[in-house]
UniProtKB/TrEMBL annotation:
InterPro entries, alphabetized: ABC_carbohydrate_import_ATPase, P-loop_NTPase
Species of the source: Vibrio variabilis
UniProt keyword terms in alphabetical order: ATP-binding, Nucleotide-binding, Repeat, Transport
Protein name as catalogued: Ribose ABC transport system ATP-binding protein RbsA
GO molecular function terms noted in the UniProt entry: ATP binding
Lineage: Bacteria, Pseudomonadati, Pseudomonadota, Gammaproteobacteria, Vibrionales
Length: 68
């Protein structure tokens, strides 16, 4: 848990400096709490793009389970 907190702090420092950070995670609360823009992938393809305002667990799962 301590290592994860250190990583979150480092990410926050970088974004305060105006830098972009790519976060890859399957933990939805983590993604929702940290990201301004979310790209959802399924089987190696992007199935959806959400900004922080429209992002929710339901919307992310809709794109993650999309067929096609």
């Amino acid at each position: 848990m301590g290592a994860k907190l250190e990583i979150y702090e480092l990410i926050n420092q970088l974004t305060k400096q105006g830098k972009s950070v790519i976060v890859i995670s399957s933990e939805l609360p983590e993604i929702l709490g940290m990201c301004d823009r979310i790209l959802v992938m399924r089987n190696g393809s992007i199935t959806g793009e959400l900004n922080a305002k429209e992002a929710s667990q339901e919307n992310i799962m809709k794109y993650a389970t999309l067929e096609g």
